[in-house]
Amino acid sequence: MEEVAKIPLDVLKARNMSLYWDYIVGLNGLWDLACSFAILLGIGLGKVHTSIFFRLSDQQLGGVLGHRLLAYWLLTYGSIRMAAFLYPSVPMHFLCSLTYFLEFAVYAVEWLWWRSTFQPVLFICLASLALGLVPIMGNLQDKENF
Asked: How far apart are the C-alpha atoms of 104 and 36, rounded to whole Å?
């Protein structure tokens, strides 16, 4: 009888964590793409992102142009996140992590420096930071692929 190769438990946990991260990123990328198109098409779903900047009037937010720029920004990083989900690899995970770090930085600056967002944006900042760190930590543990 052949002996079945046993995979160490820590490797299984790392693979499961990576799989969960891939699905979360995929869903988040899909959400970002949906919100982007909703903003561009004027559908109510787009108000989720624009309402983050509720302290600013439409005029201060840049009106229609500001909304479109926000939609293009969402489209850009949503596309990268979907690509990381569809084509998982170390370089794609790294690129996807950069989008989360950028999102963290932008919302943190808007909240702490410009005071254009409200305090619940802290959740977005922390979630973005965590989602950016997960693949990096996973890849550091998996030294064969890093």
From this structure: 18
Number of domains in the chain: 1
Report if residue 29 sits inside a domain. yes
- Residue located via tokens 């790392």: 14
Answer yes or no: is pLDDT of 7 > 70: no
Which residue range forms the structural domain that includes residue 96? Answer: 9-141
pLDDT in tens, 51-106: 776 555 555 666 778 778 888 999 999 999 999 999 988 899 899 999 999 999 99
What is the value of pTM for the model shown? Answer: 0.80
Is residue 3 assigned to a domain? no
Which ranges of 1-146 does DSSP label H, i.e. alpha helix?
Answer: 9-41, 47-50, 58-61, 63-86, 90-112, 121-141
Distance CA 5, CA 108 (A): 47
